[in-house]
Amino acid sequence: MNQAEKDLRVELAACYRIFDYMGWSELIYNHITVKVPGDEGHFLINPYGLHYKEVTAANLVKVDINGNVVEETDYAVNPAGMLIHSAIHGVRADAHCIGHIHSTAGMTVACQQDGLRIDNFYSVLLYNKIAYHDFQGITVMDGEKEELINSLGDKNFLILKSHGLLTCGSTIPEMFMNMSLLQRSCEIQVSVDQTGRDIIPVSESIGQMTEKLLEMQMSSKPVPYGKLEFDALQRLVDREDDSYKDL
């Protein structure tokens, strides 16, 4: 194992602990995957049967794009997770990291006919950036792969109807920040709906300005998108338990 893969394993294992810290874990289910550098098309995924708090750099499972385990391990991988992640990794060279969650707020919005409304501080940042995929039951049928790929297209935010949330990123911190933004958008929408009060609409013009406003905001950050936030959460996780770094 080269140093690049070792570093990637530690960062991905940290991401699993951060997701749990954020309250995004779901028993032993859901997945975060990242491509391993090289031409083999391999990526890392969590062992099936372990809670996110049990995931370490050492026990992450390396698989190929067809879901075959390519190194010795005591663990299997979840077929549903393999279908979703292998389908996207197989066609999106820019989607180095993919995260999928079943959060309560995310699933609540995913079950709503109109999906995510662009009417709060966080959701307006996602103006024209969200894709949707129709629910077809548990994602274990190969026939769904092409439809899933077509639903996502070139976007990095996907709401799986009646199912949950998925985000992509060119790095692990970028995927994390995208998930944080999508999850927070859903939380606010659910909270606002519970008030039963009238909602203040956000104009299309504000939505259209969002990309420019974000560029202005990000110009003050001399680091890649998501890194400051990811590093801050990693420090919090490390204070509780840094065993995920074990190789």
Description:
- The chain has 247 residues and is of the alpha+beta class.
- It has a single domain (3-241), classed as Class II aldolase/adducin N-terminal domain (L-fuculose-1-phosphate Aldolase), CATH 3.40.225.10.
- 41% of the residues lie in helices and 12% in strands.
- The chain contains seven helices and seven strands.
- It has helices spanning 3-21, 79-91, 104-110, 144-152, 172-195, 204-218, 227-240, and strands at residues 31-35, 43-45, 61-63, 97-101, 130-133, 157-160, 164-169.
- A seven-stranded mixed sheet has the order 3-2-1-4-7-6-5, sandwiched between helices.
- A hairpin with a 3-residue loop joins strand 6 (157-160) and strand 7.
- Helix 2 crosses helix 4 (144-152) and helix 3 packs across helix 5.
- The chain is globular.
- The model has no long low-confidence stretch (mean pLDDT 91).
How would you summarize this macromolecular structure in one to three sentences?
This protein is of the alpha+beta class and 247 residues long. It contains 7 helices and 7 strands; from the N terminus they run H-E-E-E-H-E-H-E-H-E-E-H-H-H.
Features:
247 residues, alpha+beta, L-fuculose-1-phosphate Aldolase, 7-stranded mixed beta sheet, 7 strands, 41% helix, globular
> Can you count the beta strands?
7
Strand content: 5-15%
Low-confidence segments, given as residue ranges, are none
Q: What's the shape? A: globular
Q: The CATH topology, please?
A: L-fuculose-1-phosphate Aldolase
Summarize the main sheet. Answer: 7 strands, mixed
Strands ordered across the widest β-sheet:
3-2-1-4-7-6-5
Order of helices and strands: HEEEHEHEHEEHHH
Percent range of helical residues = 40-55%
Within CATH, the superfamily carries the name: Class II aldolase/adducin N-terminal domain
The CATH C-level name is: Alpha Beta
Gyration radius, in Å:
18 Å
Please indicate the count of domains: 1
Q: Please report the distance between the alpha carbons of the first and last residues.
A: 10 Å
Assign the structural class, choosing from mainly alpha, mainly beta, alpha/beta, alpha+beta, or little secondary structure: alpha+beta
Taking all residues together, what is the mean pLDDT? 91
